[in-house]
């Protein structure tokens, strides 16, 4: 044979081999799945996480029939589905005799079509005994699975799920049933994977893990629905994994557990991250066109609806997850991943970014590059993506080949679907590119020490450039951002640093620090703020940028050029142009987000120019929007035209009109070395209680060691009351009305430095019937440390508090030294509102200062949402309601502390009864109550509701006759108590 012929045959054989590799199916690649410790591995021993779809009940009549090869083939080809689950109905009250128990032949014929199709297609198939009471049909189950094992046990594709969802059955019952069925399977199939459900809808995997089944290749089913199940269920899975068993999520939904509602996107994404991290395979419920939230196909559209992508919103969301879950299609590796990589195709760019190494320089030729597929790492869809790291010596560079003719990287025109570019690696340099047509432009997630230079971001659904999830030490320079918020105007910021407090640490780290934005052009048509600096960030610089307000929308309260919510932010050398906007209501907003972590303090704004056109008199340079911001320094800025600055008194309270010693740029000598003044409140004392109509006299003491006091300002609840420019510094509130008064004084020295002092007083016409249950709150000290404290009892003292009888345990982990609250959560014994309630996500708190406090909202527990003083009492944790008449006392004793919410009205031995006292009319229909024959002047009448709360108090000066105004009383029963030195008389009053 000639050398030429040898070469031809060698190439022919190689092409056949290559074709065989490319056509390799999922099951060809991974083979028989098996349990190895707490993971499921493939034939090579590699941990694997696959994704697929579950069919609907095979016995159901309210969905089209998807039990056919067309369904299997489409899901495998179009969804990249690796698994199909058969939910074979066994017997239900509603199935009309169509389930397996009544119609075994019909059911077996139906499911065999799917099993055979899956084997032919090379994907895995789960044969599920779909019932909630399998132990009632043990004999039939044993026979069924023995038959399936005999028919299909030789195929690596087949997985047996022998119990869908036990409900209230104890694990011992489930285990006994499972052992019998497993024995039947193993008599015919010795090694295919078996999955067993666990009690409580296949959620108690931790319970099952404590007494696992003796079989070398058995895993445990996990079922969850993101709209209902959250962190508490993931905690149970972690326990099971720690106990050494393997988990397979054979059924999950993005909606509520009842199959209804819309997809819970954020919680689903949290679940997907969890499954990825723990190498858990999963199957989504359900391939159905039944009109309910969990269905992936629009109602009544059948198999053609599936094939033509006529999907529900949930279906679109789920398809994206499954399709992008794993990369099981072999690709030719780019062998040129060192040094310079020149690209002129989308595939080249994607491959170069995916496989980037330190020192790579990805150079993109002029042109337009439209990415059609999305990466879904960590549940965040993006078009051009990399998770690779460079290093300080060898950064990864992606840039234009011609800086004067930059390439355009984009998504599908007008779809705004997926981030245009997302980097989750360190030491990237991105230069001279145009990014457009994505949900976001450029996103750095936990990407540090990066450079974003001369990037144009435009035509974006939401924000332009986002530094997120701990991204720090990055420089954004020379960028040009415009036309953002096309799809969601309220989220169309030009540049966004950090994340909202609702996302802190779950899923994003708030610590996006030491980032600089400089020499950028932001606007026009940036729909929200030009720059939004979020709470939790530190040391952000915004300098030498030009902002245009043209096109800002005002949606989601976006009506300023910049929103400052972090700490140590420096804004200087910028130009802000109104450009005819009628939406802008403030040049720069600042606020404290009450997270107690790098928010609302020490921000500096200086050497900027505000060009405000004809609206100068209406637009303040600075505006405080919430919380208690402090040390907001503002100086040496220019307003055009030079109108008066309409900054409010609330804003000025937080502002200092001078350069601080901590400024990033050295202050002028005139401001250097100035010491802040001192101030304290002499009168009244903190916690003083006044009655309605009294005068609250406030006196402050102020001094300045290196200058003089210009004035002292007086505030109540952040509203300025007045000021005094000469000592003694005083202000009086006359005819005080009911309420809590958060009084503060602010001393301002001759240079503009400030100091503050605060107290709280109360005005009421109700007698304080109890002091022992408030446990000396508000405490003058910070809350002491509670290290991983666990309390098994909650005592609700008083009336009107929450019902915590279902408490299993309360946990708090508070470190007062580092000011970190690690945990604040409740476990319940009945799942109401959930088994694990993370209250930390439901509250704001301040434990690190005097008067430690918290506010809970949207907890799901009736009467728990409230503001509380908190304290430590004998090692126990106490919450005292600010507005209600109750205290929550957490301890490890079944005995409540000795304390009553109101004084008893039944201590007869202390009562000197005076029968001649008269009270009429009783019952009373009108708004007045008359009391006569009062024996002593100065007696006190108090009216209590039946919960023991005093609702009226009045001194009786006329002994012959006194008329009370009771118009505030609602219909019901009350106790009237007339006292002097002791209780003179108690009378039951009926208000009609």
From TrEMBL:
Taxonomically, the superkingdom here is: Bacteria
**InterPro entries in UniProt:** GH, Glyco_hydro_5, Glyco_hydro_5_CS, Ig-like_fold, PbH1, Pectin_lyas_fold, Pectin_lyase_fold/virulence, PKD_dom_sf
Q: Where is the Secretion system C-terminal sorting domain?
A: 919-982
From the UniProt annotation, give the residues forming the signal peptide: 1-23
Which Pfam families has this protein been placed in?
Big_7, Cellulase, Por_Secre_tail
Q: Where is the Glycoside hydrolase family domain?
A: 41-290
Which is one GO molecular function term here?
Answer: hydrolase activity, hydrolyzing O-glycosyl compounds
Q: Which Gene3D superfamilies match?
A: Glycosidases, Immunoglobulins, Single-stranded right-handed beta-helix, Pectin lyase-like
Q: Any one Gene Ontology biological process term?
A: polysaccharide catabolic process
What are the alphabetically sorted keywords of the record? Answer: Glycosidase, Hydrolase, Signal
Please state what the protein is called.
Answer: Endoglucanase
Q: What is the organism field in this record?
A: Polaribacter butkevichii
